[in-house]
Amino acid sequence: MASLSTKVSLYCTANSKTADFGAGGNVSLQDDSDGNGPYIKTWSVSGLAQPTTDQLATYETAGNTQETNNTVRGTRKAAYGDIGDQLDEIFKDIDAWKTRIQAVKDANPKS
Amino acid sequence: MQIGSTNTSTINIGVSGDTVNIPSGVTIANAGTATGFGGDNTPSFSVTNSGNTTVAASTWVKLGFDTEYYDTDSAFASDKFTVPASNAGKYYFGYTTRIQNIDDQEYASIKLYKNGSALDVERTMGMNYSSKSAQGMNVSCFYIDEAAVSDYYEVYAYHTSGSAQYAEPGGTVFFGFKLLT
User: Fold this and answer.
1) In terms of Cα–Cα distance, which of B136, B135, B154 is closest to B145?
2) In chain B, whose CA is at the least distance from the CA of A68?
3) A73 contacts on B by Cβ (under 8 Å)
4) Is A5's CB within 8 Å of B163's CB?
5) What is the DSSP string of chain B?
6) What is this model's ipTM?
7) Does residue B107 come out as left (phi exceeding 0), alpha (psi in the -120 to 50 range) or beta?
8) What is the C-alpha separation between B19 and B13, in angstroms, rounded?
């Protein structure tokens, strides 16, 4: 199940807005650990109404895809290794580096 | 000079309304038990969690605390500290947690809530950025607040990782005590 933050982000993007969850941002989400799950605590996205539960539900599939791809990106990033080490690889043998990076991508495909 | 004998149970000095003066330069040396002086910084508590709390991405999530190291006035219950009767005053709170798998440029944060609302965001929030992938990120903060009877305090955590992460039990602690005035 896609997280609330992912679905809110997709809702804002679909309406040409950007959700900012950080301190002083335009959306804050909260979960009081009372079994009711996360909810929108504050909403101040200029020019865009707070989404309903039904509206957010329409982003479930897209949200799952995005979160799966985020996991893939993290796995790839870890496998790529330190950027300094990669620059050294490129300097010594750029073709070997490209082969290794492609292998990481192939082993961790996005949805 | 000896005042009282070995079988004197109580020695009274003055009566209500009197002032007992101890002149400058006098030293009071106590080798016995003194009551009614100073205080013992109670109520006080220190709690942790025996399991993980799942913290959803970009969401302030209340942390669970199911294990008490101590709780002098039985004022901690249901993941929150509630100021007991006759114990209003200034309280010192400390709170820390450790969020798993925080990647480069992502951050974890922690905040103190009072009566269901976040306290002053800047002063009550700890934040830490990661400089590497998949780091366990410790965040801590300390705060002194003027508390009334029945005020309650909770701790919330937050992170910007792309998916839900755990607040680890070993690194999650919430403590507090009343300051002497």
Assistant:
1) B154
2) B163
3) 162
4) no
5) ---S-TT------S-TT------TT------S---SSS----SEEEEE-SS-EEE-TT-EEEPP--EEEEETTS-EETTEEEPPTT--EEEEEEEEEEEEEEPTT-EEEEEEEETTEE--HHHHEEEEE-SSSSEEEEEEEEEEEEE-TT-EEEEEEEE--SS-EEE-STT-EEEEEEPP-
6) 0.78
7) beta
8) 10
Chain B interface residues (partner A, CB cutoff 8 A): 53, 56-64, 79, 103-104, 109, 121, 125, 127, 133-134, 156, 160, 162-164
Put simply, whether A72 touches B (Cβ < 8 Å) is no
Q: Which of B109, B1, B21 is nearest to B58 (CA)?
A: B109
What is the chain A residue with the closest CA to B106?
Answer: A22
pLDDT in tens, chain A (111 residues): 899 999 999 999 999 999 999 878 999 999 999 999 999 999 999 999 999 999 999 999 999 999 999 889 888 988 999 899 999 999 999 999 999 999 999 999 998
Do B62 and A29 make contact, defined as CB atoms within 8 angstroms?
no
Tokens linked to B137: 């990120």
DSSP, collapsed to helix, strand or coil, labels residue A73 as helix
Chain A: residue whose CA lies nearest to B62: A32
